[in-house]
Amino acid sequence: MSEPGTHYLNEGWTLRSWLLTTDHKRIAWMYFATITVFFFIGGLAALLIRLELLTPAGEMVESDTYNKLFSAHGIVMVWFFLVPSIPATMGNFLLPLMLGARDLAFPKLNLLSWYIFTLGGLFTMTAVIAGGVDTGWTFYTPYSTLFSNSAVVLAASGVFVVGFSSILTGLNFIVTTHKMRAPGLTWMRLPLFCWANYATSLIMILATPVLSMALLLIVLERVLGIGIFDPELGGDPLLFQHLFWFYSHPAVYIMILPGMGVVSEIITCFARRPIFGYTGMVISIMAIALFGFIVWGHHMFVAGQSLYAGILFSFFTFLVAVPSAIKTLNWTATLYGGRIRFTAPMIYGLSFLGLFTIGGLTGVILASLAVDIHLHDTYFVTAHFHYIMVGGMVTAYLGGLHFWWPKITGRMYSGPWSIVAALALFIGFNLTFFPQFLLGFLGMPRRYHAYPEEFQLLHVMSSLGAGVLAVGYLLPMVYFGWSLWRGKPAGDNPWDATGLEWQTSSPPPKHNFVDTPTVTTRPYDYV
Amino acid sequence: MSDGATIASHFEDAEQQREAGLMGMWLFLATELLLFAGLFGGFAIYRGLHGDAFAAAARHLDLPLATANTVILLTSGLSMALAERMAHAGAPQLARRWIAVTVALGASFLAIKGYEWHHEYSEGLMPLLGLAFEYDGPDAAQAHLFFDFYFAMTGLHALHMLIGLAALVLLWMLGRPRAGLQPDRYIRQVQITGMYWAFVDVVWVFVFTSLYLLRS
Amino acid sequence: MAEQAGYLDTVEQGLALHPEQAATSAAQVDLLFWVLVAVCVALVLTLFALVIGFSVRYRAGSRRPRPGAIAESLGRRIELGGAAGLTVAFLALFAWAGTLYLYLYRDPGGDMLTVNVVAKQWMWKLQHPNGAREINTLHVPTGQRVRLRMTSQDVIHSFYIPAFRLKRDAVPRLYTTAWFEASKPGEYHLFCAEYCGTDHSRMRGKVVVMTPEDYAAWAQKNGEGEGPAQAGERLFTAYGCSGCHRGRGTVPAPRLDGVAGRRVALAAGGTVLADAAYLRDSLLLPNKHVVAGYEPVMPSYQGQIPEDEILQIVTYLQSLEPGDWTVEPRR
Ligand code: HEA
Ligand code: HEA
Ligand code: CUA
Ligand SMILES: [Cu+2]
User: Fold this and answer.
1) Predicted model pTM
2) Is the CB of A298 under 6 A from ligand 1?
């Protein structure tokens, strides 16, 4: 095969060898680069939002500008960062390795989906530059179709296009998981990271098309002037909300399941224990993915849907919280009797556990109909989803990066600095978003550019926290970059972890394994 | 999905590759189905809300032409099935001929559809692009909605037809008698395109039923 | 009239940690909220205690003996037990929340002070039964149930009074209702909670809760003589409805006194309850439900009557009792 010392990174150095690669590992890098850019763009918008909210009068930017800022923030963070985050980078890189395969089933499709992603990103960025979008990330009709004067068509098209990229990725992952597992790697021996990505992919291919259709209808309605959501024609503006949340509620599980997968790998590895209740974990992953499809109406409790529909949706929402609780319980129980090492990945893993639980439980508060009447569309909701999406998923994403960085690059990063960053993020995060729970309960509505004075103190705290977060997110960029050139060689298995990805060299060779590995044991064979 | 060699280097064997390809296509079609499902779901809701208005509007459509089109499209499904047969039987040239027939049928479908659209345009039933909507029955507003769905559904279907036709033409060209035509690879390609074509057929049957046949 | 020193004046600066409770429902919602918070805090603390406890006890350096793996059967029992316990707790909370939701959101019927609310970018237009109109301010008495009947003229808005724990979307084409009973005089925030464009954050106002006497005085002073029902009656003639429905016009049309709230038999078969939404549809989409025994000849008034006037006509129709009209329309 290849020369000793060659691996996927030094197989070729030309730009062409990157842009036309079909190697899943290089495609993962391309995604990583792209979504990092998007994360900082979204983060910049967040910082501007927080800056504006320092004072109640709303004097820093115009109200239209503010509306465009939070819309761009939400759209970019959700579709161009968080949805692809773990699947497109770590999933792409690791799924074949963990399955003992040489690549994903459809390598060219994989490359194509990156191009589609980037194309969609360009659309949306053009929209943001050419006048902005002011509909919020939810594109509610009839505001988005009949009233907004901003670049809705371009932005919605961008999201539409990106949808196909996630569909293709999902499809690729599912086929790969079904057809390309190494000999002996039965379903019940799959690492939970694979299960999580599998379930995520299912949601991607089942839910994304419906969102695509809803967005397509918005585009058609604006461009061609058809009137499906137009109340004047007897159209129903609420229909859009149903279509949107039919996708976007399952999509929130696209944005958390991969993180749960990562955390399962990290916690077992650094507690040096097999996962507690593997079967239960698998069942709950699949249960979350499937039951996630029948709760979308909990976003519409006050929107005018029938009261009984509301009751039903609330009921299912309570039930879908149970599998998440089982997972939390099992991670905790995995710690029992372990030999716990507090490396940076582990600190991220434990932060995830705490922050996700707070986010999840406040979700349950929101699901409690009577209370949601008060809390809906206030900062309580904002706090809820940032606790899950930032405190949970972004934390898991960073944890995963720290965990697999040695495998991906073959280099170690600075231990102490990485721990400082992890702690800064935990503290900064709570400072930013905890006050928002209070704000919400006090009645501060979302998407407000100016607000009554009595809310100022809490807003100032939140903005300070965002400053700490900014530092916390920049730090890893610095020491990761540094480690690329100066980091100590990591060795094939620096954490002494199980899993096929650790059996090949770091960085892995182009075709992943010199010989196809065979699996004989259950995962997480730690003692 | 393979590069040159019959078995792409990341697959273990041809069987694995074939199965992966088929499964990929099935999943893709499932997502396509859901794409249309969003539209059909919306249509069903409005049809329930404004039943009479929608039925009345449906009577403005050209049922005979659409019926003819349905027959044409189903026939093309048959010819495509024959193409697959031939490819399997090791007769790629015969397969190509049936593919040509399929292309011809598909193109006539689109031509007829285009004529129908033109007809609706000239009758002022095309509420797109700010065109005036001249509808003479009661409930013009709801009829407007009906025609919104009509154009969205038939338009999206036609787009899929176009993609299918492009794929067929490509197949036809790929199958030229020449050195290096890999029969088993060609079979796979014909099979996968055939699945897509069948899907387009099936969607049309639903479009036809909900738009043209629900008229009372 | 003396302005009360309201909540709004006292909290301008500083930090409130609990929103004012100014309606009867507020305490009920808060009770549920705090119970939920207590349950969540208990769960989170348990979790943190376990995580921190294990982390310290079983840190890599510690010498403590390590217990063997938990047996699979015991593990399964822990999982199932945890799941079952949580499910029961969740279901109890759900039942509570659901019941309260129905109580708060279902129109209790009966005699209430009904205020019509029409939202538009970016203001609230309100009209009291006695005709008093206000913009962005709502005056209400304590101790009396108030019903809001809301719709929107353009996009979706949401009527939010944090001190009442009350929120409801105002949706174009739809009538939504909400009710409350204010309990504490003062001034409270009124917010638009659904994003509605440029000045969403300035679509704010206040609710002034007054004692019944003060309210009566206020209403007396501000009533314009013509309430929404009277205005509706005037419009009913002005738009020519009465020509068919009350006069002896050329077309047969159903009489409308007492139709509101009744079940109406339809030409297409079946019946439908003549609620506000039905009455509104009858004006704008007359052929959606054709009354049994009549021809579908009523013209559509789509786009010809502004939203607040439609609401007035509906209010008028709803104010009619059977037999109010003495002239029989042609049958
Ligand atoms: C990744 C994203 C994500 C995830 C995973 C979730 C998960 C959940 N969400 Fe959230 N949600 C959002 C993102 C997410 N949400 C977003 C973006 C919005 C706003 C959208 C907008 O309007 O812009 C939103 C809004 C939202 C609402 C609507 C609020 C409103 O607008 O009025 C509701 C209401 O029911 C809700 C509920 C829930 C629930 C019950 C879960 C559950 O799945 C949570 C399950 C988890 C748990 C329950 C924790 C488990 C742990 C325990 C129970 C501890 C066990 C204890 C021991 C072991 C000791 N969410
Ligand atoms: C999915 C992921 C995601 C992520 C990661 C975040 C991250 C953050 N979010 Fe966001 N947020 C959403 C999703 C997300 N958000 C969504 C969906 C909405 C709803 C939108 C809507 O209403 O439509 C929302 C809304 C939202 C609001 C409410 C706005 C409003 O309702 O008026 C606020 C306010 O505080 C906020 C704050 C933040 C902050 C401080 C962060 C921080 O965690 C960000 C930290 C990152 C940084 C600080 C970047 C650091 C980088 C630099 C400093 C580099 C400078 C730049 C360059 C070199 C280019 N977010
Ligand atoms: Cu009106 Cu927001
Ligand atoms: Cu949800």
Assistant:
1) 0.90
2) yes
